[in-house]
Specification:
about 400 residues; alpha/beta; Aspartate Aminotransferase, domain 1; Aspartate Aminotransferase, domain 2; 2 domains; seven-stranded mixed beta sheet; four-stranded antiparallel beta sheet; 13 strands; about 40% helix; globular
Length: about 400
């Protein structure tokens, strides 16, 4: 069975459903995680750690709960957290964001992305999306009656061909969505990429939605190239980040966005009605925890060791290892093992070998199958060792 096939019907019991997203199935992360659970497989599909977050951070959440910080937070986010983010951004990227007017706390990065697209994209506006693309971008564009325009990243390193980007831009181009470090491929933008981008959109009205949730996870000495680093890009960018990726707390769903005041004003008009406020004691706890800068500065080394272990373990499995320059994902090319569809192979690995992954074809609108699977290595070493042992049977 192909895991992309769906049994959903919209006309049961004479109820006619006019779906706003008729071509959008259940997210692949839900499908593969359920399959992993049902077959007692090691779940390297969905991007979450299987190790605990800091006990100190948990203690801080408890502290603020006991002290009574349990009611609605301000819509923009608690001031202490916005000020801590402003300081962190200034130190890392040499750009000043006003905590009152240019920073907003969100219920995770996905909410921030949806809110930004809803606030800024009008009917028939075109939005450039680089494929393979994280699966929340296009549905948000479509539900707001925007038009996604696809540009494929170039294999095997998944780089951007800026000549193709230039050809895709026209008078209707409203936004460009960039994601670096990139999920699902593990690629990352370089300083020269930002310079090409700057030249390309100079003199246009194109805005940038920059998904930077893995900003603290880059490898081999590579510096994260935030849009905040370049004044001409920052002035037209809304930058998204996430504390779930930084502090191993994906279930808390706390993120934030940075944007110039004019863009942030529009963002907040939507934010106030689809979320309004974000978990209060967690915000205060993160604000205090951010004072220990090593907690996020050490992530590069921590996850680079995980990546290196994963790659060393999987060298003996028959997979070809694609480069990963950031995130906590690794692509494995299985073209030397079999030529079956990646969705079918991912299902086979889960059910028969006990290891769940994500087929990369699902991140393309045309389901392009390059025989590549995505694995999450944000796991305990023993988990990775067990997964590699299972797949050596291939």
């Amino acid at each position: 069975m192909d895991i992309l096939k769906s049994n959903i019907r919209f006309n049961e019991k004479n109820i006619i459903m006019n779906s706003k997203l008729p071509d959008i199935p259940t997210t692949i992360f839900t499908i593969m995680s359920k399959m992993a659970h049902d077959h007692n497989a090691i779940n390297l599909s969905q991007g979450f750690p299987d190790f605990s977050c800091s006990g100190e951070l948990i203690g801080l959440v408890h502290k603020y709960m006991k002290e009574g910080y349990n009611q609605y937070a301000p819509m923009f986010g608690v001031p202490e957290l916005r000020e801590a983010i402003s300081e962190k951004t200034r130190e890392l990227y040499s750009r000043e964001y006003d905590p009152e007017k240019e920073i907003n706390i969100t219920a995770g990065a996905t909410q921030a992305i949806y809110t930004a697209i809803t606030a800024l994209v009008h009917e028939d506006d075109e939005v450039l999306v680089f494929e393979p693309a994280y699966d929340s971008y296009v549905p948000a564009i479509k539900i707001n009656n925007g038009q996604p325009v696809y540009v494929q990243l170039k294999e095997p390193d998944y780089t951007i061909d800026w000549g193709e980007v230039e050809k895709a831009i026209n008078s209707r181009t409203k936004m460009m969505i960039l994601n670096s470090p990139h999920n699902p491929t593990g690629s990352a933008l370089s300083a020269s990429d930002l310079e090409e981008l700057r030249k390309l959109i100079k003199g246009t009205n194109i805005m940038i939605l920059s998904d930077e949730v893995y900003e603290h996870i880059t490898f081999n000495g590579m510096k994260h190239q935030s849009m905040a680093l370049h004044p001409e890009l920052a002035e037209r960018s809304i930058i998204i980040s996430s504390f779930g990726k930084v502090f191993h707390t994906t279930g808390w769903k706390v993120g934030y966005c940075l944007a110039p005041e004019m863009i942030m004003n529009e963002f907040r008009k939507v934010h106030q009605f689809n979320v309004f406020a974000v978990n209060t004691p967690v915000q205060y706890a993160i604000a205090e925890f951010l004072k220990n800068k090593n907690e996020y500065l050490k992530l590069n080394k921590f996850y680079e060791q995980k990546r290196n272990l994963f790659n060393d373990l999987f060298k003996e499995t028959g997979f070809i290892i694609r480069p990963s320059r950031g995130t906590y994902f690794q692509l494995l090319d299985y073209s030397g093992i079999t030529d079956i569809k990646d969705t079918v192979f991912a299902e086979k690995l889960t059910k028969e070998y006990g290891v769940a992954s994500i087929p990369v074809s699902v991140f393309y609108h045309e389901k392009i199958d390059n025989k590549v699977l995505r694995f999450c290595f944000a796991k305990e070493d023993k988990t990775l060792e067990q997964a590699a042992e299972k797949l050596r049977e291939l």
